[in-house]
């Protein structure tokens, strides 16, 4: 793969410095309408105890290879190969609980940031200040720390933190997965629901910890045509990952005392 130049050099420099880029209204109304219908169905299915892979919802699964997102991620990856890690989706209603400060960089134990992992936050109905402000701490991707290093601060504003609470529908934020962020709980002010999807992508060159059924998810994604006639088939390459739940106990056991003695 070669760099696609969807991002300017200034944007690349900004991402390197602060760890995220905001794209207001990146997804058009048609995409948002179709994907919101899938999110609504997902919430109904969950209420009824029906479990399906995210990629089985046709419009939502197709978001994993949405060109306006993936091509920008490719620029951030410097044109190197990368794979899709996961997709999460739901809507949050008024009064929803928050999510304390954390980062989502998948590494056990946390030791370096040699390879890039990004999360893409999609706000299908935007943000209006009523439900779930996004808090981000610029620059924290440059420091190696556990995901819960800031958790004691819950949803507080911190020195240097940024609040994102107003965005138009279809806005996306591409975040270095090691950036500390949080979702502040808000009481709501009307009927607004916060439609939220996040997808994640990992640079090739290391094995990334994944979910146990990633192979089945990738096979389903290809079966559903999410690779867009093969153009984005590289996203669904399971060989770049390992089952982190299967090995987490083994890794914890090995991470005792001086690791230098075990090399």
Note down, in words, how this protein is organized.
This protein has 263 residues and is an alpha+beta fold. It is 25% helix and 24% strand. Helix 5 (214-223) links the parallel strand 12 and strand 13 (241-243).
Largest sheet: spatial strand order: 1-9-4-11-2
C-alpha geometry: globular
How many E strands? 13
Stretches where pLDDT falls below 50 for ≥5 residues? none
CATH architecture: Sandwich
CATH topology: Jelly Rolls
CATH class: Mainly Beta
Mean pLDDT: 93
Helix content: 10-25%
Q: Report the major sheet.
A: 5 strands, antiparallel
- SSE pattern: HEHHHEEEEEEEEEEEHEH
The CATH superfamily appears as q2cbj1_9rhob like domain
Oligomer: single chain
Q: What's the number of structural domains?
A: 1
Gyration radius from CA atoms, angstroms: 18 Å
* Helix/strand/pairing category: alpha+beta
How many helical elements?
6
List the SSEs and their pairings.
Blueprint: H1 9-18, E1 20-23, H2 29-47, H3 58-62, H4 67-76, E2 82-92, E3 99-102, E4 117-123, E5 127-128, E6 133-136, E7 162-164, E8 166-167, E9 171-176, E10 181-184, E11 194-203, E12 208-210, H5 214-223, E13 241-243, H6 244-254
Parallel strand pairs: 12-13
Antiparallel strand pairs: 1-9, 2-11, 3-10, 4-9, 4-11, 5-8, 6-7, 6-10
Index terms:
25% helix, five-stranded antiparallel β-sheet, Jelly Rolls
Outline:
The protein is α+β, with helices and mostly antiparallel strands and 263 residues long. Helices cover 25% and strands 24% of the residues. It has one domain: Jelly Rolls (Sandwich).
């Amino acid at each position: 793969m070669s760099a696609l130049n969807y991002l300017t050099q200034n944007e690349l420099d900004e991402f390197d410095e602060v760890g995220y880029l905001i794209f207001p209204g990146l997804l058009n109304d048609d995409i948002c309408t179709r994907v919101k219908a899938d999110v609504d169905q997902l919430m109904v299915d969950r209420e009824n105890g029906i479990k399906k892979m995210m990629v089985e919802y046709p419009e939502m699964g197709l978001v994993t290879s949405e060109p306006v997102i993936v091509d920008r991620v490719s620029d951030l990856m410097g044109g190197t190969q990368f794979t899709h890690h996961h997709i999460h989706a739901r809507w949050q209603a008024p009064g929803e609980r928050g999510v304390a400060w954390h980062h989502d960089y998948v590494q056990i134990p946390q030791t370096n940031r040699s390879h890039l992992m990004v999360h893409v936050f999609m706000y299908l109905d935007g943000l209006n200040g009523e439900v779930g402000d996004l808090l981000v701490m610029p620059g924290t991707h440059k420091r190696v720390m556990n995901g819960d290093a800031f958790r004691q601060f819950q949803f507080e504003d911190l020195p240097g933190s940024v609040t994102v609470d107003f965005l138009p529908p279809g806005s996306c934020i591409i975040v270095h997965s090691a950036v500390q962020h949080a979702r502040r709980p808000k009481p709501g002010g009307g009927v607004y629901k916060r439609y939220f999807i996040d997808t994640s992508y990992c640079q090739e060159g290391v094995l990334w910890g994944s979910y146990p059924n990633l192979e089945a998810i990738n096979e389903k994604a290809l079966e559903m045509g999410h690779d867009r006639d093969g153009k984005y088939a590289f996203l669904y390459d399971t060989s770049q990952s390992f089952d982190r739940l299967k090995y987490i106990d083994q890794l914890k056991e090995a991470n005792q005392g001086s690791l230098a003695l075990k090399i």
